[in-house]
Amino acid sequence: MRFQFQTQNTCSQMIYFDLENNVVSDIEFYGGCNGNLKAVSKLVDGKTVEEIEELLAGITCGPRPTSCADQLAQAVRAAKNHLENNKVQQ
């Protein structure tokens, strides 16, 4: 399923990605440091939500309390929680 996540406190404004069977793929950032975010996207493509959280959660950027990488970790967790919550309700 395709998800979009509006970032907060980062140069990127939006993250798009697919989440199927707990595996994240086809990650795209809108805005931000183009080359770095392409690299991050490629490096975590095919990893699980938990693997992405372990690698990226808590990374900061300069004086900001978050980063594009940290926002990706938050985004994939939010998407997984959304899918789990909807599965329970059905």
Can you put this structure into words, describing what you see?
By secondary structure, the protein is α+β, with helices and mostly antiparallel strands. Helices cover 46% and strands 26% of the residues. It has one domain (2-89). The chain is built from 3 helices and 3 strands. It has a 3-stranded antiparallel β-sheet. The two termini are 17 Å apart. The model has no long low-confidence stretch (mean pLDDT 96).
* Overall strand count: 3
| Percent of residues in beta strands | 25-35%
Report Rg: 13 Å
Mean pLDDT: 96
N-end to C-end Cα span: 17 Å
Biggest β-sheet: strands ordered side by side in the sheet: 1-2-3
Overall outline: globular
Number of domains: 1
Count of alpha and pi helical runs: 3
Q: Biggest β-sheet, characterized? A: 3 strands, antiparallel
List low-confidence stretches. Answer: none
SSE arrangement, N to C: EEEHHH
- The helix content is 40-55%
Q: From the helix content, strand content and strand pairing, which structural class follows? A: alpha+beta
List the helices and strands and how they pair.
Elements: E1 2-6, E2 12-20, E3 23-31, H1 34-44, H2 49-56, H3 68-89
Antiparallel strand pairs: 1-2, 2-3
Helix pairs in contact: 2-3
